[in-house]
Write a structure and sequence with these properties.
Elements (H helix, E strand, L loop, with lengths): L2 H35 L4 H13 L4 H8 L65 E5 L5 E8 L2 E8 L8 E5 L15 E6 L9 E9 L4 E9 L6 E3 L11 E2 L14
Antiparallel strand pairs: 1-2, 2-3, 3-4, 5-6, 6-7, 7-8, 7-9
């Protein structure tokens, strides 16, 4: 058992009260003796601090009055002690934002430069390739075609009689003499075939081309039905190919039953 508890129990309530009062008196006597004797030792200051708090006195006021401020303690405030912190001041109001200055005047637009001179007209390009086709069927036995392609003129015949394959048979008329092939004559640019007379024995057929210079050239052939299939013969009686001829007259501006 704790000796202090055993002593308190033996003394009882009246005894414990007298014991506490005796301790307080002894403490005060020790403080008085320390003040008379001179500067306090560390042990004495420790007792002084404890006694001031236990007795309910103002430790800062007594210490400053009796022994002065301890090293390291703040010396500000009344009696050498820091006073209680005052209330926080109100936060200042935010200043108003300054007004935006006016926008400066817009600069003038620069003048538009003069339009440059128009460039020269380019040279005319080459004439595109000419193509053309024409047809005729004046007989129940055969039909005729003429076609222009790649600068060449072809004459065709197709046998319509029963038992024939009815394929077109073509003859290149471009290899005949005097075929227009440039220069003043120009190049063939379109073709046509004329109708033949079904009642004649010799079925003569004419093929025409018009050139890039406006000239008209003609070639003649004969359709033979004595063969199977029917064929074209474009040679003369001696077997030589018939030449192309420039038709007379040629069309001219303002022509009226005339030409050149």
């Amino acid at each position: 058992m704790n000796p202090e508890s055993r002593t308190a129990r033996l003394l009882g309530p009246p005894g414990r009260g007298r014991f506490k009062r005796a301790g307080v008196v002894a403490s005060l006597a020790l403080v008085t003796a320390s003040a008379v004797a001179g500067p306090a030792t560390p042990a004495t200051r420790s007792a002084f601090d404890h006694t001031s708090v236990a007795g309910g006195g103002d430790r800062c006021r007594l210490r400053h009055h009796e022994v002065g401020a301890l090293p390291g303690e703040p010396a500000d405030g009344r009696w050498g002690c820091r006073g209680p912190r005052g209330p926080r001041g109100a936060t200042g109001a935010t200043g108003a934002t300054g007004a935006t200055g006016p926008i400066g005047p817009q600069g003038q637009a620069g003048p538009t430069g003069a339009t440059g001179p128009q460039g020269e007209v380019g040279a005319t390009g080459p004439t595109g390739p000419c193509v053309g086709i024409d047809a005729d069927q004046a007989s129940e036995d055969f039909e005729i075609r003429v076609a222009l392609s790649g600068g060449r003129t072809y004459a065709g015949i197709r046998d319509q009689r029963t038992g024939e394959k009815q394929n077109f048979l073509w003859t290149n008329l471009s290899v005949r003499p005097d075929y227009p092939a440039g220069g003043a004559a120009g190049l063939p640019c379109d073709v046509s075939v004329n109708a033949h007379n079904r009642n004649t024995t010799v079925k003569r057929i004419k093929f025409d081309v018009i050139t890039t210079t406006g000239q008209i050239w003609e070639a003649a052939c004969v359709a033979f039905t004595t063969t199977r299939p029917a064929t074209l013969n474009c040679a003369d009686r001696t077997g030589r190919p018939k030449p192309w001829i420039l038709v007379a007259l040629q069309p001219t501006p303002d022509a009226l039953n005339s030409g050149v």
